[in-house]
């Protein structure tokens, strides 16, 4: 039995990391195009580095929550692949394996002209920090308007799933948001979001609740039904 999980910023909200589009979300304080686009990088790289350096520092203080840990429990029993839009490392900190970061990772840096020249990077990235190819380092994050290199791999995961669990995403950003459409028609889909913007249907079960509360319960239900 294969389980595909899609997570967004909402799974990290109860760990203290801001989402993007909720009130007081990250994008409320910033112009996306200034801090998360190739145009913004070209115009003012220091501004972009400052934005990500601040977000990276936050990671040192935050901890996974019950939703992340519930996924570790699920992975102990089933083949569970996690596709996350998040760039934080809370899935890994909770012991989740098989985590595919669709939009990159805050704790990685890469050459600004070669997205295969990637380095683990836990500290600030400063102007003048160079990759082996002599180019400036940038956060290994997929910016708006950039290709999503791992989308084919992610699509395959969802196309083979018997169960899909969607946790804490507004489903507004493609191609990530389209992944659930690739699930087989007979797949069971569970969606957890206090403000869901999808309608429940025969095989789509919607839980208008926070992740840390609903995910452990749904994981228990899946284990008791399918283990
Ligand atoms: N538990 C579960 N879901 C929550 C919680 C919570 N405690 N708090 C908020 N949410 C939900 C919100 O209702 C919303 O639907 O999480 C979702 C967060 O949506 P966004 O802020 O749009 O975040 P996300 O869907 O991950 O954004 C996708 O957009 O900005 C880009 O690259 C960025 O990866 C990001 C992508």
Automatic annotation (TrEMBL):
NAD-dependent lysine deacetylase and desuccinylase that specifically removes acetyl and succinyl groups on target proteins. Modulates the activities of several proteins which are inactive in their acylated form. InterPro entries: DHS-like_NAD/FAD-binding_dom, NAD-dep_sirtuin_deacylases, Sirtuin, Sirtuin_cat_small_dom_sf, Sirtuin_class_III, Ssirtuin_cat_dom. The keyword Cytoplasm applies. Coiled coil: none annotated. CDD domains: SIRT5_Af1_CobB. Belongs to the sirtuin family. Class III subfamily. This is NAD-dependent protein deacylase. The keyword Transferase applies. Its EC number is 2.3.1.286. NAD(+) binds at residues 8-27, 85-88, 168-170, 211. The active site is at residue 103. 2 residues (Tyr-52 and Arg-55) present in a large hydrophobic pocket are probably involved in substrate specificity. They are important for desuccinylation activity, but dispensable for deacetylation activity. It is found in: Cytoplasm. Residues 1-225 form the Deacetylase sirtuin-type domain. HAMAP family: Sirtuin_ClassIII. It catalyses: N(6)-acetyl-L-lysyl-[protein] + NAD(+) + H2O = 2''-O-acetyl-ADP-D-ribose + nicotinamide + L-lysyl-[protein]; N(6)-succinyl-L-lysyl-[protein] + NAD(+) + H2O = 2''-O-succinyl-ADP-D-ribose + nicotinamide + L-lysyl-[protein]. It is an enzyme of class 2 (transferase). Keywords: Cytoplasm, NAD, Transferase. Substrate binds at residues 52, 55. PROSITE patterns: SIRTUIN.
């Amino acid at each position: 039995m294969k389980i595909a999980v899609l997570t967004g910023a909402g799974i990290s909200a109860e760990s203290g990391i801001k989402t993007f589009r909720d009130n007081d979300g990250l994008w409320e304080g910033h112009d996306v195009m200034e801090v998360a686009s190739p145009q913004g990088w070209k115009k003012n790289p220091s501004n972009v580095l400052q934005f990500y350096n601040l977000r990276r520092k936050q990671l040192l203080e935050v901890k996974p929550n019950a939703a992340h840990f519930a996924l570790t429990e699920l992975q102990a029993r089933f083949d569970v692949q996690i596709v996350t839009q998040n760039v934080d490392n809370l899935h890994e900190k909770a012991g989740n394996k098989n985590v595919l970061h669709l939009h990159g990772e805050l704790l990685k840096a890469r050459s600004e002209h070669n997205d295969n020249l990637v380095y683990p990077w836990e500290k600030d990235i400063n102007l003048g920090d160079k990759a082996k190819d002599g180019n400036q380092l940038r956060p290994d994050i997929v910016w708006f308007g950039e290709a999503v290199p791992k989308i084919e791999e992610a699509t395959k995961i969802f196309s083979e799933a018997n169960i899909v669990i969607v946790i804490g995403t507004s489903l507004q950003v493609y191609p990530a948001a389209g992944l659930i459409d690739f699930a087989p028609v007979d797949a069971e889909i569970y969606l957890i979001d206090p403000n869901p913007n999808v309608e429940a249907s025969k095989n789509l079960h919607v839980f208008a609740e926070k992740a840390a509360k609903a995910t452990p319960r749904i994981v228990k239900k899946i284990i008791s039904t399918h283990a």
